[in-house]
Amino acid sequence: MSSVRKGQYMAIEAVLSLGLSLIVAVAAIGVFNNYRGSVFDAIGDRNVEITSSRVVSAMYNLGHMGDGSSITVEVPQTGSRTYDIAVTADNLEISSGSSSYTYSLDSITWTSNIEGSAQGDEIALVRVNNGVEVRSD
Q1: What residues does 70 pair with on adjacent strands?
Q2: What is the pLDDT of residues 81-98, one digit of tens each?
Q3: Model pTM?
């Protein structure tokens, strides 16, 4: 075999090795990005559960307090996500980006006058005239 052919085979082999290495690298980056996205989604879902639990617990506590009382609820943050919280007499709605979660407030029996909305890392629940107002803190 001539040295020219040997050189051509070595060049082709080098190009193929580089191509395969690039394919593997791109695939690894894609898998990592998918995994990272699913982890952030799971954390965001967990933060929504934590927030809804804290808000409902605070509403129960306000039932045993007098008018003008307030409770501040911390909203967990994940990266640049912000959570919008809105309440009506029947539902607590927490939204972040394109995701929206709704929780029933039927278990809050001491009042049916629950209203307001807030955004940020802390919200205030204030008892006013035997009802609850949700505000940004």
Answers
A1: 126
A2: 788 899 887 889 988 777
A3: 0.72
